[in-house]
Amino acid sequence: MRLNVTVNGTARQADGVWEGESLLSALRDHLDLPGSKNACEQGECGSCSVYLDGELVCSCLVLAAQADGRDVVTVEGIAPGEGELHEVQRAFVETGGVQCGFCTPGLIVSSHDLLARNPRPSDAEIREALAGNLCRCTGYEKIIDAVRLAAERLDAQPPEERAA
Amino acid sequence: MEILRPETLDQALELKAAHPGARPIAGGTDLMVELNFDRTRPPEILDLTRVAELTDWGRENGALRIGAGVTYTRLISELGARLPGLAIASRTVGSPQIRNRGTVGGNLGTSSPAGDGLPPLFASDAVVEVASIRGTRRLPVAQFVTGPKRNVLAGDELIAAFHVPPADGPQQFSKIGTRNAMVIAVCSLSVHLWPAERAVKACIGSAGPTPIRAADAEAFIAGVLDEEQLWDSRAPLGTAAVQEFGRLVERAARPIDDVRGTAAYRHHALGVLGRRTLSWTWNAYRREA
Predict the structure, then answer these.
(1) Looking at the partner chain, which of B36, B49, B73 has a beta carbon nearest the beta carbon of A66?
(2) Of A19, A42, A43, the CB nearest to B1
């Protein structure tokens, strides 16, 4: 099957995608975008979180064919430019919200989605928004610190500079 | 494997009739797991996400008609005020990622007794609208689901929508699990008050082969409310009545022992949920006055 999909703003094409393949496999194995991680393949861990037409989804639960002609943003598309970091990414680095790093891409995308919808989330709202992203290293406290920090910094920016 | 990609409901029904073995997919939260783990290889997959009609909702004869493809996220944000019980249950489904994709149509299609969207539908006497090229039929949700992961859908049929009356009183849903997100219910309970009908409807989830209406508990509490004229006085419900309601809910369950919990625990927990959800809804009804 041929897949046509816009990924991180660029029209991409992949041939030889199996009909039963997930969007996650298509991104990793056909489009050279290994940022989205393959862990549980059943929507439990959130490591494969991406935007599909602006909505946060587990790419392992999207059939690649369902993304045909649609718009996907992966963790590789979150930073404003090459060699730069988004405030959410910077906050994860600074607070130590990263240990082994496997869950981090999914948490970055989920945190980015939360702050786009809700710029000043309460702790309860952060926990609910990140409930579908599992981390087995950090104990989550540093991750929640990172989201709080990113929220503060993004909120202090003038609206036109706010990328979240 | 072939992917069928209809853009209208008519096209989808034509394709389903021509390929009765095709597995429909919407949010993919069930089917993709089967595909990813090599548990199924259907001859065709029928992608319903491009069928705009399935994602509409509106009013019809005083009830809400909700397309099978409306996601849990939209049920919460767009219909939460009209369907509070279903919205509370929807909020317990998975995670934001899952709620952005998963649909009540999928819960109906899978017909798992643990589907969190089902008890609120049973406690609302919802009606399922099933379509095929032969026409449309509507049946009560309790007749639609026939057993664990079994329902009345024929090979050429698709779930088009469900019809549910908007709440006219408080509704609650409560679920037991190891955490507040990402869990399949150990057991759950919906309790809906219908003041205009003078009825209390309760449905147990994940503690039997299908969701189960707690008919004896409903009849008992309806009798108490009627006899003591509580619908009008909005006076507190007696402790004995609340406890008896919980006991009858507990008795209505038909659970098994499985990896998520024992039958004995589920019976016990449902008694607690029965007392709690009845108290929550009745206290909310009293505050409405």
Answers:
(1) B49
(2) A19
- What is B61-76 written as a DSSP string? TTEEEEETT-BHHHHH
pLDDT at A158: 77
* pLDDT score for A157: 86
Residue of A nearest to B48 (CA): A66
**Which ranges of chain A have pLDDT less than 50?**
164
* B68 CB neighbour count, 10 Å cutoff: 28
DSSP H or E run through B25: strand B23-25
Of A41, A128, A132, the CB nearest to B98: A132
**Count of CB atoms within 10 A of residue B198's CB?**
13
Question: Tell me: the pLDDT tens digits for B29-59?
Answer: 999 999 999 999 999 999 999 999 999 999 9
Task: Supply the pLDDT for residue B199.
Answer: 98
A3-62 residues touching B, CB cutoff 8 A: 18-20, 22, 41-44, 46, 49, 55-58, 60-62
Taking CB atoms and an 8 Å limit, are B5 and A65 in contact across chains? Answer: yes
- What pLDDT, on the 0 to 100 scale, is given for residue B229? 97
In this prediction, residue A75 carries a pLDDT of 98
- Asked if B121 contacts B141 with a C-beta cutoff of 8 angstroms, the reply is yes
* Angle at CA of residue A47, ends A42 and A52, nearest 5°: 85
ipTM: 0.96
Question: Which chain B residues are within 8 Å of A5, Cβ to Cβ?
Answer: none
Contact B181/A131, CB-based, under 8 Å?
yes
